[in-house]
């Protein structure tokens, strides 16, 4: 008997993916650098299905039916290259290596091109949903060739999460498209988490509510339009009491957010594409600020002052207003993330269907939410939508939210509570809808100091003002 699929790298994600395939009736070849892990997997979970364990890479490859499908689940970067170098020579034309880790899409493009030359398929695929998702049904975002998807797609669809029986897995596009989309998924995840954190902070500091009370607020929100996995787990985390001290769990955790890099990559890529993903960027920077212990200590020691004691209370229903601010800011973050996906799709010729991305994020992944249904519908209606904000559903939502949103940002500023997510989302919204932006002045400054030229509103061409000359005449540039 040969295996339909193989997994090499049996740490928790790889192990759970292998078990998921086995539980769906597929024979799974398993391999790990140290054989112990492989043995453990078969001993502990062998009853769940059919595993073919191998100690050597050669035996592992020999245990697979052709075309061979080898999932690599190791650390992104050097370790992935090492595994590719080990396996590629053992494979034959038409076989495929599938990188299911959080690889950088440019690495995936490079690897795909190199392996294509050797007649092999390289599929960089996003897998979201953490350990539980890998076992019970993740959201899967495979890139690579159409041909590779024909041989691999049905297997991935089989183990993916489902919404009304429809798999949360679709061929995203060629080469690095899958990993790009997974990266933006993570960037959006950062933004969602930051916005939720700001909402909590305001309810606690301005509203005076306890973490446990705020957990109930989130539970309530979870029943409404904000309903999502991240809102749900936020309530769980806020309800948690530390066993040792009896204090709220959030109060015993060091307030420095860590990051493994996908959020930062999203922003770096957005800068190169020229797409303003301010919501995601603020959330990456907010984590960096929180982690800057030395700088924070210096600021505390210097006693940087906050607002005077007369900050006053919130003018409005704080809880309802924060819900509005959270929802509107979330819309902005998603609008920016989807715009980035569309820009990259154009840049790299990926032909990504944004509606299909929203569709496969509805279950399995970390940002799963009811909300994604509306994004899917928006792009189904008009695939070329320049921004989600002009879709009727989202337009109505931000129009309905904007007064509350402004009140929340004012309250945050008056109380000296940092709300970079809410504030920058609102600034983005106001920037987009502005009839005239002060960018005209920036053009003037650029022309003044660097003769960079400007365009006029009333005639075509590039113009330069001779700023140093007597009457500052304008010339065609
Ligand atoms: C997922 C998660 C997963 C991982 C993040 C955490 O989709 O399942 O996004 O990929 O948990 O990379 O990222 P940070 O450690 O950077 O917060």
UniProtKB/TrEMBL annotation:
EC numbers: 1.1.1.44
SMART domains named in the record: 6PGD
SUPFAM superfamilies, alphabetized: 6-phosphogluconate dehydrogenase C-terminal domain-like, NAD(P)-binding Rossmann-fold domains
Reaction(s) this enzyme catalyzes, per UniProt: 6-phospho-D-gluconate + NADP(+) = D-ribulose 5-phosphate + CO2 + NADPH
Broadest EC class assigned to this enzyme: oxidoreductase
InterPro entries: 6-PGluconate_DH-like_C_sf (IPR008927), 6PGD_dom2 (IPR013328), 6PGDH_C (IPR006114), 6PGDH_Gnd/GntZ (IPR006113), 6PGDH_NADP-bd (IPR006115), 6PGdom_BS (IPR006184), NAD(P)-bd_dom_sf (IPR036291), Pgluconate_DH (IPR006183)
All copies of domain 6-phosphogluconate dehydrogenase C-terminal, residue ranges: 178-468
Protein keywords: Gluconate utilization, NADP, Oxidoreductase, Pentose shunt
GO molecular function: phosphogluconate dehydrogenase (decarboxylating) activity
Biological role stated in the UniProt entry: Catalyzes the oxidative decarboxylation of 6-phosphogluconate to ribulose 5-phosphate and CO(2), with concomitant reduction of NADP to NADPH.
Subunit and partners: Homodimer.
Protein family: Belongs to the 6-phosphogluconate dehydrogenase family.
Name listed for the protein in its UniProt record: 6-phosphogluconate dehydrogenase, decarboxylating
Provenance organism: Paractinoplanes hotanensis
């Amino acid at each position: 008997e040969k295996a339909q699929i193989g997994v090499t790298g049996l740490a928790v994600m790889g192990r759970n993916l292998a078990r998921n395939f086995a539980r769906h009736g597929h024979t799974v070849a398993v391999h790990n650098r140290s054989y112990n892990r492989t043995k453990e997997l078969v001993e502990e979970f062998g009853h769940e299905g059919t595993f073919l364990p191998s100690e050597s890479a050669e035996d592992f490859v020999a245990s697979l039916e052709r075309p061979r499908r080898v999932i690599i689940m190791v650390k992104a970067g050097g370790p992935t290259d090492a595994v590719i170098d080990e396996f590629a020579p053992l494979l034959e034309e038409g076989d495929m290596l599938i990188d299911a880790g959080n690889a950088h899409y440019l690495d995936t493009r490079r690897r795909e091109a190199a392996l294509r030359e050797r007649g092999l398929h390289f599929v960089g695929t996003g897998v979201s949903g953490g350990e539980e998702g890998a076992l019970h049904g993740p959201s899967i975002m495979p890139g690579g060739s159409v041909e590779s998807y024909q041989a691999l797609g049905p297997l991935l669809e089989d183990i993916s999460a489902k919404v009304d029986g429809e798999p949360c897995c679709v061929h995203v596009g060629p080469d690095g498209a899958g990993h790009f989309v997974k990266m933006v998924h993570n960037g959006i995840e950062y933004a969602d988490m930051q916005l939720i954190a700001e909402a909590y902070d305001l309810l606690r500091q301005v509203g005076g509510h306890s973490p446990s009370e705020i957990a109930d607020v989130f539970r309530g929100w979870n029943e409404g339009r904000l309903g999502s996995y991240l809102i749900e787990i936020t309530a769980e985390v806020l309800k948690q009491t530390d066993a040792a001290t009896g204090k709220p769990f959030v109060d015993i955790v060091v307030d420095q957010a860590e990051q493994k890099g996908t959020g930062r990559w999203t922003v770096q890529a957005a800068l190169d594409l020229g797409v303003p993903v301010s919501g995601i960027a603020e959330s990456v920077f907010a984590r960096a600020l929180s982690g800057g212990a030395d700088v924070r200590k210096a600021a505390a020691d210097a006693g940087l002052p906050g607002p005077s004691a007369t900050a006053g209370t919130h003018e409005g229903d704080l809880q309802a207003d924060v819900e509005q601010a959270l929802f509107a800011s979330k819309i902005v973050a998603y609008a920016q993330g989807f715009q980035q996906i569309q820009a990259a799709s154009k840049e790299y010729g990926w032909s990504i269907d944004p509606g299909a991305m929203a569709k496969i994020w509805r279950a399995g992944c970390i940002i799963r939410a009811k909300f994604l249904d509306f994004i899917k519908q928006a792009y189904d209606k008009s695939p070329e939508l320049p921004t989600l904000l002009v879709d009727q559903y989202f337009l109505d939502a931000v129009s309905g939210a904007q007064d509350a949103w402004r009140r929340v940002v004012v309250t945050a500023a008056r109380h000296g509570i940092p709300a970079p997510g809410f504030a920058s989302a609102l600034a983005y919204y106001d920037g987009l809808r502005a009839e005239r932006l002060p960018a005209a002045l920036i053009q003037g400054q650029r022309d003044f100091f660097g003769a960079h030229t400007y365009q006029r509103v009333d005639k075509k061409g590039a113009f330069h003002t001779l700023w140093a000359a007597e009457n500052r005449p304008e010339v065609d540039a």
